[in-house]
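Give me structure tokens for this 230-residue protein.
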Amino acid sequence: MTVILGAMDGEITAIRENMDTARAVTWRSYQITTGTIAGEPVVLCRTGVGKTLSALVCQHLIEAYRPDRVIFTGVAGSLRGDLEIGDTIIARDSIQHDMDATPLGMAPGEIPYSGYRVIPCDPDLVAIAARVEPAGGTVRIGRILTGDQFMTDPARRRELRDRFGGDCVEMEGASVALVCAVNETPCVLIRTISDHADGTVDFQRALSMASTNSWCYVASILSSLKGDDS
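Here you go.
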């Protein structure tokens, strides 16, 4: 069984619309939709924006449904000049860029006393995702940076790219990856580039584009997994 997450409803609309035997239940203020895609059982949920809410929802769903894997998808801002709007980043790994305990002698992004800094995605899921034909644009396997900040400053964009080797920046991925790592649940993060982290973005258009691309990836990944199981 697969848990599918997105921060906002607009990022996962196409997925919800294409689910079979969909049934919605409510947990707290969250709508959790269960059903199937390509014959595979799935649980779909909006997490809300930011590291805390995404971690909260991911942990609850892991405990409640015991999934075999987690897919997190949505939009991100590009940190590199050769990444254009509509391109896709499949995370090889992720880092919380706003975690800074360097005064304690720790590396930027290192979570103190935890052993976590660079949080990898499941290599098998990354390989499966990398074979998917996206809805548009090009595809890169790279590093996603996560923090509770919406990036609009080009200087800060350059700093994140140079300091962490990041390809794009968003607000949930590394927190979900951390929850999955602690729970030993395979995960993959897939982001559609919506802007250049410079404050210029047509957000509604970006959400619609990301929703279509997310559906393309989720459907293809689940079809591949079904083929591997047969």
